[in-house]
Amino acid sequence: MAQNDSNPTPPPEPHVAAEPITEDLVQDKEEEDDSSKIVIPVPESESLSLKEDSNRVSDSEKNAIDELKKLLKEELEDEEVSIWGVPLFKDDRTDVILLKFLRARELKVKDALVMFQNTLRWRKDFNIDALLDEDLGDHLEKVVFMHGHGREGHPVCYNVYGEFQNKDLYHKAFSSQDNRNKFLRWRIQLLERSIRHLDFTPSSGINTIFQVNDLKNSPGPAKRELRLATKQALQLLQDNYPEFVAKQVFINVPWWYLAFYTMINPFLTSRTKSKFVFAGPSKSPDTLFKYISPEQVPVQYGGLSVDFCDCNPDFTMSDPVTEIPIKPTTKQTVEIAIYEKCIIVWELRVVGWEVSYNAEFKPDVEDAYTVIIQKATKMSPTDEPVVSNSFKVVELGKLLLTIDNPTLKKKRLLYRFKIKPYSD
């Protein structure tokens, strides 16, 4: 199933200064146990950003594009052909499309020509144009879904294998060849619709998708029907959707999947392996935040995306989140200075919790009483993932949000706030 940003708004009103009392976001000097995360070695090109790597075109690639274009014009004999909304030979976006096929065939022009011709034939047989508008239901919308963008602007696709623990859903998707074919059409439809939103502009467009594969509670290799459907889907995606993945991040990875990957690793190209990242449960949020900002990450994966929780409606995905590391056995206070009467709203979470949290307001007036907004409360991993609150400020002062981390593990605090005016 898994196949190969919005610009954040500026900080809230200028009358508010948010200055966390903390060091810069840096790694602890002491080494952490990294056994739950395996990162595949990458070639030199990986030092580029995902966008730069996708858009960089070498001289040999330019020559191969020109040669493939010439052969295609001869084969098609002036036939008008469009693919993924791009009319071939009508504008420069054609070069971006053809380069995907060339890279998939290691710049072997004749092999890329055959692949492209087979894709055009398959798209016609599969009736892709009609598939775009076909009503296939919404029962699989939690299995594979598009949500948010990566730090470099790539749309993010989540594949949630654990949803197939639902026996009714599993049966409906895989119990027969007809059901598996329907599932495949649904998966291809979602991919086609997503591709239509990509930008194939040479040198500057975002023309790949960031894939997140959640293997938590995955049925695993014992499910024969799932293996058959996955194999069929992967083959179609590999044959007809080359170079559409910017990165493949696997989270909540169990041991058996790493064993499976070890077996297939020798058969993968260096370019393919460079796109793979694996993370166990404890490292999954940190791994996602490396590529996707927290306000774009769904709550179930450690973020603050409002589309996936009953969070404060004052916030949207465009409201940036501040990240602060909290070292083991330390207390961290975020201080927000407020210079006008207002209502301040905020939300925060600590990934994994196991900390205490309290909030208070300290007026600037000397000898004034500190107002306790939230008394110190122990927060466990089973509590609500996001804490949301508000406070009416009637005198100038500071909002203090304090996290006490008594554990021996480094924690990550995520928070954001807004100022709302009010009249007496």
TrEMBL record:
Annotated ranges, domain GOLD: 314-419
Q: Which domain of life is it from?
A: Eukaryota
Q: Name one GO cellular component term.
A: membrane
Which key words tag this protein in UniProt? Answer: Cell cycle, Cell division, Cytoplasm, Lipid-binding, Membrane, Transport
The protein's matches in Pfam families, at most eight in alphabetical order, are given as:
CRAL_TRIO (PF00650), CRAL_TRIO_N (PF03765), GOLD_PATL1_C (PF25099)
According to the UniProt entry, its GO molecular function terms are:
lipid binding
In residue numbers, the region (Disordered) covers 1-57
Gene3D superfamilies from the entry?
A: CRAL-TRIO lipid binding domain, GOLD domain
Main subcellular localisation: cytoplasm
Q: Which GO terms describe its biological process?
A: cell division
Q: Where is the CRAL-TRIO domain?
A: 133-303
Location(s) in or outside the cell: Cytoplasm; Membrane
Give the similarity note.
Belongs to the patellin family.
Q: What is this protein called?
A: CRAL-TRIO domain-containing protein
Organism field: Glycine max (Soybean)
